[in-house]
Design goal:
Elements (H helix, E strand, L loop, with lengths): L1 H5 L5 H17 L3 H16 L3 E8 L4 E9 L18 H9 L3 E3 L21 E8 L5 E9 L9 H21 L25 H13 L6 E4 L6 H11 L7 E5 L5 H9 L16 H4 L4 E5 L6 H13 L1 E2 L8 E2 L3 E6 L3 H7 L4 H7 L2 E4 L9 H17 L5 E2 L1 H9 L5 H15 L4 E2 L1 H4 L3 H7 L3 H19 L4 H8 L3 H10 L7 H4 L1
Parallel strand pairs: 6-11, 6-12, 7-8, 8-11, 13-14
Antiparallel strand pairs: 1-2, 1-5, 3-4, 4-5, 9-10
Helix pairs in contact: 2-3, 2-5, 3-5, 13-15, 18-19, 19-20
């Protein structure tokens, strides 16, 4: 066995000593979270990879769950996987079903989509995906290692398979040794955390994050559409921060904030003497954003005359300041945002059709908060924590009645309305617990929802279930343990309250 494990490696004795050290550390660890962290850290060190991920196979649900990740050099730093739903990726599914390791030396030639891997400055070049077997040769999980550098990972497969298998066996032993009510759950790094800095685990938000991951490292123009307050600028900043232009400027221009003449000079700049009052050269926003990203907010309010000039910039990559004799090249990524129906405006002749199709190269529809089931509670807690930090106050709690009001409210102003609502509630809260009176929501909204006691109780039950699922990344077995009910009972309640069983993670 020693020969098979270590002979392919350049320094087998040194490697074996290091591997033994990691086995010892795993064997002495009594905390589930730390155990999983040690496993991925050890795998990354041993394989000399920048990324290692540990997936646990949830046999009743038939899915893989990311429970730990070591990531070096990610953009943005410290984020978990680049997008949600990686357990459904064909590559992981292939390894899971085949029960055989898969090592790829050049991902550019890979037939499997590797878009679920985290975003890094340099694209991933190679990876090794290893099934982890238990004593009965059943698959307990999957260990993945990847590097943006060329590397021969095949030689590490056998030893890392034993290391990962030992870690999952220890994890299982820890859980059996503790009462179910006291089982320490693994940290949910990809749930309540921020993927691309965005908060939320609803189906709609997961889809938004997936689309962001697809367009991050492309030059495509992005069109963000959504109601007022859905966070279009936040998403634009996320695309910039996690993409290859993050080191350069991010410039925002509201196209509705300036009259036509001033907007043109702001965008393209002007030369001294171009018009009365132009006493010096002025650098336009396209030049200010050179190498970076320019967000054109409320693009639907841009005058028709400027739309033609913007189209030329998008097509030619050149700008001509007012009063200048020649154009010059600019390298700017354009992100446009609007709450208007641009196609309807095209039909009405108030928006250029050619510009629309150029801007809508990659459209992303941002969901309204009422469509993000469960996200309002997560966002409310986040905004409350931020407000407390800004005010220098201890963190506040939430009464069940206040949370009930939040789930009942439609939030026509979306995330912006929720943020203002929570900040005001924190300011009014003097006893450390936010109550319904601090929220000051319209009584009409409550009356419209609260028709019967049964409906009110079901709404509260739904809120509690979604909140608990969110904490456990959609894992129904751990959720049932935490709630102190049988798994079958939990499944029944999920079905009765129309929380889709197959999309439990997305409902969180």
């Amino acid at each position: 066995m020693m020969k098979n494990l270590f002979t392919p490696l350049p320094h087998p004795l040194t490697y074996a000593e290091t591997l033994l050290g990691w086995f010892c550390r795993l064997g002495h660890e009594h905390d589930e979270t730390t155990l999983a962290d040690l496993c991925v850290t050890g795998a990354a060190q041993l394989s000399q990879c920048e990324l290692s991920q540990l997936y646990l196979f949830d046999e009743p649900a038939g899915r893989l769950e990311l429970i730990a990740q070591h990531l070096h050099g990610a953009l943005p730093p410290g984020d978990p996987a680049s997008g949600p739903g990686s357990q459904h990726e064909p590559l992981l599914h292939y390894v899971l079903t085949q029960g055989q390791p898969l090592t790829l030396d050049d991902l550019s030639q890979c037939v499997h989509d590797t878009g679920f891997l985290p975003a890094v400055a340099q694209p991933w070049h190679c990876l090794s995906c290893i099934p982890l077997l238990g004593r009965s040769k059943t698959i307990m999980g999957v260990l993945l290692c990847a590097s943006p550098r060329p590397a021969q990972l095949q030689g590490y497969v056998a030893s890392l398979a034993r290391l990962g298998g030992f870690a999952l066996a220890q994890l299982s032993l820890l859980r059996r040794m503790q009462p179910a009510s006291e089982v320490t759950r693994l940290k949910s790094r990809a749930s309540a955390t921020r993927v691309y800095g965005l908060i939320g685990n609803s189906v709609a938000m997961n889809e938004t994050c997936r689309l962001i991951g697809k367009v991050l490292h492309t030059p495509y123009t992005v069109l963000l559409r959504g109601e007022t307050g859905t966070g279009k600028e936040v998403v634009a900043r996320a695309i910039h921060a996690a993409g290859p232009r993050s080191a350069k400027a991010f410039v925002v221009q509201n196209c509705a904030a300036f009259p036509e003449g001033l907007l043109e000079s702001e965008l393209f700049g002007y030369r001294k003497g171009a018009f009365t009052g132009a006493q010096r050269d002025h650098v336009g926003l396209f030049d200010a954003a050179h190498g970076g990203t320019l967000l054109l907010d409320e693009i639907g309010d841009m005058p028709l005359s400027l739309q033609a000039k913007l189209l030329r910039v998008l097509q030619e990559g050149e700008v001509r300041p007012l009063g200048a004799n020649a154009s010059h090249k600019v390298d700017v990524r354009i992100i446009a945002a609007t709450h208007r129906d641009l196609l309807a405006m095209v039909a009405q002749g108030t928006f250029r059709e050619d510009l629309y199709y150029r801007l809508a190269q990659f459209p992303i529809e941002l969901p309204a908060l009422r469509e993000r089931d469960g996200d309002a509670l997560q966002l409310a807690r986040h905004f409350a924590d931020e407000a407390c930090m800004a005010l220098g106050r201890p963190a506040v709690g939430w009464s069940s009645a206040a949370l009930d009001q939040l789930t009942s409210h439609g939030f026509p102003g979306n995330v912006r309305e929720l943020k203002c609502l929570v900040e005001r509630a924190v300011l009014l809260c003097d006893d450390g617990v936010i109550l319904p009176l601090h929220l000051a929501l319209s009584p009409r909204t409550e009356a419209a929802v609260e028709t019967t006691l049964r409906q009110r109780l079901e709404r509260v039950e739904r809120m509690v279930l979604i909140d608990c699922l969110q904490k456990n990344r959609g894992n129904r077995t751990r959720t049932a343990r935490e709630l102190g009910v049988a798994r079958r009972t939990l499944l029944y309640r999920l079905a009765r309250l129309n929380i889709p069983v197959g999309e439990a993670k997305g409902e969180c």
